[in-house]
Amino acid sequence: MIERRYVVEYVFKKFKEAVWRGFNVRLGMPPEEWRKRYPELSHRWWKVWMAYADAVVVTDDAIWIIEAKIRNPRTAIGQLLDYRERLKVTPEFKQWLNRPIKLLLVIPIPAPEIESLAKNYGIEVDHYLPEWVANYMREVGLL
């Protein structure tokens, strides 16, 4: 729940002029085998089985896929790369696929090794450390 609040707060501060924004956004399509076996079921029915991004934001000039990590940000690199491919086949985003897809990792404090790795994969990194997150990090021994 901490990271959920963290990403929502960040998105509303950073992307004030968003065309569309969503949180825990399901991405991709169900496996073809499932679609063939149960053709009467709509795409929406399968969403509970699909991967989800912390946030997706559509702006006038891009689609942003965002992962926010307070703990273990390294895992977000693979997730973001996976989500980019899934977003390309997600029907709800078809109307916006003429925009570039940008990947963004939001972390509270600098992590040079992870940031360098992210950069190698075209992932942008932003730092966001509100006081309530700093307090939480101190509480659990991360600061």
What would you note in describing this structure?
- With 143 residues, the chain is of the alpha/beta class.
- The chain has a single domain (2-139), classed as Trna Endonuclease, Chain: A, domain 1.
- The chain is 36% helix and 22% strand.
- A 5-stranded mixed sheet has the order 1-2-3-4-5, sandwiched between helices.
- Helix 4 (112-120) links the parallel strand 4 and strand 5 (123-127).
- The longest helix has 15 residues, at 74-88.
- The chain starts with a helix and ends with a helix.
> Per CATH, which architecture?
3-Layer(aba) Sandwich
Return residue spans where pLDDT drops below 50 for at least 5 consecutive residues. none
Query: Could you spell the SSE succession in H and E letters?
Result: HEHEEHEHEH
Number of helices: 5
Q: What name does CATH use for the topology? A: Trna Endonuclease, Chain: A, domain 1
Largest sheet: 5 strands, mixed
Count the domains.
1
Helix % is 25-40%
Oligomer: single chain
- What is the number of strand segments? 5
Strand order of the largest sheet: 1-2-3-4-5
- Average residue pLDDT: 93
Distance between the termini: 19 Å
